[in-house]
What we know:
This protein is α+β, with helices and mostly antiparallel strands. 42% of the residues lie in helices and 24% in strands. The chain is built from 18 helices and 24 strands.
Amino acid sequence: MTTELVAELERRAARFAAVATVQQAISATISLNEAYREIYKAVASVVDAPCFALMIADSLREKFNAQCIIVDSEEREGESVLDFPNGTETIAKVFHSGVPIISSKPERWWKGTIFQVASKREVKSEITAPLTYRDRTVGVMQVLSYKTDAYDGHDLDLIMLIARQAAVAIENARLFDAQRGEQRQTQAAAEIARVALRKVTVAEASHNILAILDDVVPSSGKAIGIISPDGTTISCVAALGTCEQMEGMTAPVENSAVRAAWATEEPTFVENLRELAHNPDRIPEGPAITIPLIASSRRLGVLVVTSPTAQLQTGPHVDALMRLAAAVALAIDVLLLSEDEHRTHARERTLAAALATMDQPVLILGVDAKVQYANTAAIKEYRYEANEIAGLSVDDFVVASAQHSPRQTIPAIPQDMQLWTGEHVHRRRDGTEFPAAVTLSHIRDGSDNIVGLVIGIRNLTEERKVADHLGRTEKLAAIGELVAGVAHELNNPLTGISTFAQLLLEDNLQGEQFESVSLIKREADRAIGVIRDLLLFARKTDARAVPVDINTIVKHTVRLRALASRSGGIEVHMRLDESNPRARGDEQKLQQVLLNVLVNAESAMQGTQLRHLSLTTQRKSGTVQIVISDTGHGMPLSVSQRVFEPFFTTKPPGEGTGLGLSVSYGIIQAHDGTISVESTPEVGTTFTILLPLYSDASK
C-alpha cells in the first residue's frame, strides 16, 4: 500500500512539475504568436495531442478566429484560418457555459477545411476547454487524439490548469501588443509631425510619411494624392509598393478611384481599386481602403492603402491608419501652408492643433529650456493650469537623480543627432511622481539653426505594472514546482529509513538499541508526515464539493506550521468544537486559506513580547465559524480595508507578493462563505471565516 501511494505521489508530482514548468514558459511570453506556441507545447507535454485547435472569440463579428491549428503535430497555415466555421455545438456550448467537455465522439466540423485531419485516421477522443480570463471567456481550446478514451478526469484537470494560464498569457500578450502598437503609432505621429517641420517639398515629405506609415501598418502598396487648389483634380505625389506606378498621375476627382471617399469624407473600402480608376492601366488591381486627408475642415488629399486580401476592411490595422491619417493630414496641411509665407501663422496653429489632439504629453521648449507650449495631454498629466505651465523650466518636471541635476538629465543633443530617447522620473504639480520615457528632438528654422526642443513623454506606470504582474506569476509557478520537487526528493530516502527501522524493530533488540531504533522509526515517520503535508499542499486540483471536517483541517494546518511556530516562540491555542462541524468544499483549498492566514499571523508577531495564536471553531446559525486571532502589531484601518486587494502588501519588496489573502478571499467566496478581518494597532488581528454548514440532509 505504501509503495502504491509513493508511486501515485511520484506520478502526480512529476506531472505537476511539468505543468508548472510549462506555465512558467507560457507566462514569460510577451507576444501572441509565442504564447500560442507555448500553449501547444504545454498541452503536448502532459497529454496525447496529435491534433490541437485554439480559437479566440471575435465579439464584433460573432465568430471565432482560429489562431493555432495543429494536425498530426504540424502547424497548419493559410488564409482560411481567418474564416473559422462557427456554430459547432461542442465549441459553442463550452464557450457560453465555461464548462469543459471530454468526448469520445468528436464532431466532424473540420472536414473539407484547413483543419482537416489525416484522411486515413479518425479522431476518437477530444477535450474542449474554455479559455477564461477573470470572469470572461475569451476563447476555446480543443485537444484531439486518435486513441479511444485517451483522456480522463485528471487529464482534464491538467488541461484546465493550462487553459487558465493560457488565457492570462493571451490577455497579457494582447496588452503588450496593444501597448507596443500605441507606442509605435505615437512615435510615428511624432515623426510625421517632425517631417512637417523640415524644409522639404510636399512630395519629399509625402515619401517620408509613406515610409513611416509602412513601418507601422505594412501593406502591399500605399499612395498619397493631393487635391488641386480649385478642388477639381487630384495628383499622386508619392507612392510605394504596388501603387508605385500611380506616382505622378493626375485625374479628375469625379472620375478617380477615390471619388466615393472624397464625396462622403469618410474612409471607404473598395473591393477592386482598378474598376473605379480614371486610368486603370496604372492602378493596382485588388482591395484597397481610401482615406480622405482632412485638416481644419479642409479636404487636402487622400491616402490609398492596398492589400492582397480584404483584411483592411476592419481590425487593428484600420484603426491605426485612422489614427495616423489625422497626423498625415495635419502634416500635409502644414507643408502646403509653408509654401506661402502669408500662411505661416496658420501653419503654427495647425501644428498646435495636431499636438493638442495627441494622447501623449508633448512640451516645446525654447533654447533656455523653458516651456513655450504644452499640449492638452501634458497639462492633464502634470496637473497645471494652461496659464501656469508656460514659462516653467524643465527642472520643474524632472526629478534629480543621485548622479545628475535635473537640467543635466536633459542632455545637449549634438547638432548631427536628430533624436534622443531615455527614461526619467517626472514630478507633477502636486508632488506625485511617475516613470517616463522621453523623446527629444530639435526644432530648426529656415537657416537650419536650432530654435527650440520638442519633448515627447510617455507615462510608463501601466507598462511596468504589467511587467511586475508577469514577474509575480513566474514566481508563483516556480514556488509550486519547488515544493513538489523537494517533497518528492525527500520522500524516497525517508521512506527507506522508516522501512529499514521497522525491519530492525522486528529483530529481538534490547535496551538502548530498541529505544534508539524506535526513535529513528518515530522521527522518520514524523518527517514523512510533513512531506505528505507538503505534497498535499503543493498538488493543485479543481475545486471539489465533498464533506470536509473543519477540525481536521485546522489541526493539519497547525501541524504543518508547528516548526515555524516553535522557532518563533509562538504559543498556539486551539479551541475546537467537539461536535466536529463539517462544511462542503475542497479541503486542499480551505487548508491553503488557513495556511495563508497563519503565515501572516506569524509575520505580524515578529518583534512582539506576547506571541499567542488562537484558533477556534464552532457551529453558528447554520454555518461553521473559524476564528484566528494573533497578538501581533495589528493594522490601521487604512491597511485592514485593503488586505484582500490583489498585490497589496505591507511587507518589504521581495518578501511578499500580496496575493495570499486575495487568493484566500476568492476561495472562500467560491465556497459561498465569507472572510473578514478586524485589527487594532499594537493589539492584534482577528480573521473570521464563515462557511455553510454541511448536513446529511443537504446531499
